[in-house]
Amino acid sequence: MKYSINGIQQIGIGVESLNAAWNWYSKAFGFNVRVFEDNSVAAFMLPYTGGLPQKRHAALTVNMSGGGGLEIWQYTERIPLKPKFQIMFGDLGINAIKIKCRSIDNAYKHLVKMSVSNLSAINTNPDGSKYFFLNDPFGNLFQVVETNTSWFSKKKSPTGGVLGAIIGVTNMDRSLKLYQNVLGYSKVISDQISARQDFMDNSKKMAQFRSVLLTHPDIKMGAFSELLGTTQIELIQCLDRQPQKIFENRFWGDLGYIHLCFDVNNMKQLEKECNNSGFPFTIDSASQSGKSFDMGEAAGHFSYIEDPDGTLIEFVETHKVPILKKLGIYFNLKKRDNLKPLPKWLIGLMGLNKYNRIDS
Q1: Using CB atoms within 10 A of its CB, is residue 321 exposed (0-12), middle (13-18) or buried (19+)?
Q2: pLDDT tens, position by position, 52-78
Q3: Cα separation of 213 and 126, whole Å?
Q4: Helix ranges (DSSP H) in the chain
Q5: Residue 157's Cα: distance from chain center in Å?
Q6: What predicted TM-score, i.e. pTM, was given to this entire model?
């Protein structure tokens, strides 16, 4: 059976304080449902953590309106490093997370009330969708995008979950071979060369970019596909300066966006495709453990590849997931048709694992 990529499961964010980050993302973007929490050692990521196992505290949180989640990630025995330079739009790695919303005006008003810093004006994408940028209190860039498609449920939150990511690249055509051919973002929404404001630079200067906005042409399947919904990847190539690698001389888990993670099925076939396309697995939990990787309250098989510029792409094939932890209810995905979406009422039970705020 061919592999399937079912949507963006989460984007990892390295932070100094998991609790502080959770509380802000819950209030700002409605990420208040905890899928799992794990306080242990990252033993498999040695190529990206200085060759040594590193202790960390991580939690996966979602917005039940729909969209991907955030994996909030904190080192517990080392101080996470900031980049040694001012990150600029087009630098190599994940530049921004795209957050979905139903009403751009309602989302904007909500963030204004929160006194969010560095809110841009509301602008329009080539496909007609409206958006704006903002920075969280930890220096990370977000783009809030209005969309009326693939919502899981209607909640009070003015935004939904992760719609996608903006990723800096050095060679657009080379990067498209991965994102279009392997990851399935083969539908081009727009491909343009234009001067854009550098939202990561306080001077707000204009710069020349080639920007390609991609989505997938098919309706995704998989257990959590209805929650994850339709997603986008925007690749940006800076044309008037030499971009820098955002995680140069830093560890995975240091401050900022550490990886883009996809929910997948049939990891073995995906590995073959990645190998044939020139993007071999650099991390494979099954090859190191020989069994499901235990993530505290969940279990599965995960792997990593690098895009042509070293941005980390994670794949997760979920085997066990908590549905209603208070009653000890977990779902074993290995015993079902892995391409069939779970019933919406069953996924909806995850909403009972709600934490609007975590105390330190």
Answers
A1: buried
A2: 999 999 999 999 999 999 999 999 999
A3: 9
A4: 18-29, 104-113, 172-176, 225-228, 267-276, 285-289, 344-348
A5: 19
A6: 0.93
- Point out which residues pair with 138 in neighbouring strands: none
DSSP string spanning 254-278? SSEEEEEEEEEE-HHHHHHHHHHTT
- Residues in CB range of 14: below 8 A, 6 or more apart: 73, 74, 75, 80, 252, 253, 254, 255, 256, 257, 258
Q: How many residues does the chain have?
A: 360
Q: Where do we find the tokens 């015993």?
A: 335
The token pair at 32 is 């208040």
Q: According to the per-residue pLDDT averaged within each range, which of 33-47, 158-172, 189-203, 334-348 is highest?
A: 158-172
* Structure tokens that stand for 197 in this block: 């404001």
- Residue 27 has phi, psi (to 5 degrees) of -75, -40
The closest of 315, 320, 325 to 351, measured between CA atoms, is 325
Question: Considering Cα of 295, then 292, then 339, then 187, what sign does the dihedral take?
Answer: positive
Terminal CA-CA length for the chain = 46
d(CA 286, CA 220): 25
DSSP state of 23: H
Query: DSSP string covering 177-210, please?
Result: IIIIIIT---EEEEEEEEEEE-TTSTT--EEEEE
